[in-house]
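[Amino acid chain]
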Amino acid sequence: MVRDEEMPTYAEMCDLNPGFDRLDYIAFALQQSKLHFDFLTAFSGLFVPKFILVDGRVQIEGLFNREQYDGLIASGCALEEAQMWCSLTEFVGVIDAAFPDTEVDLKDIVDFCQSLVDVWNLQLEAQGYISCGRAQLEVDEELDEVYVFLK
């Protein structure tokens, strides 16, 4: 995978936006490049992350799929079955290959995943689904994988 030459580098984004950090750049890079990872598509359609640049920082928003939730609840499907996972080493490798100047490590990816989970939980609460369970992040360091469950 090759970095889009028109895409500003991490250093350039830091120069333009004081306070911009690696997590901001990961989100910015994903949004700008339209890269598709299992990580971004494996929420079973329940939550679709969206990243926007606001005052020099990346703000995570998301599309909350009420129909998908209602369908799961109506069918009696346990929300715990709606889970996603990603390989941390694969995710770091893809980011590294596309954007080598980000200096991304596994902790950055875990922090990034946690920020998505936090936004997801805020939306669950705002939409009145919090009684159905909260999204929780679990990391399997031995396998270098991260899981998100609704519990």
In short: Residues 35-42 have pLDDT under 50 and may be disordered.
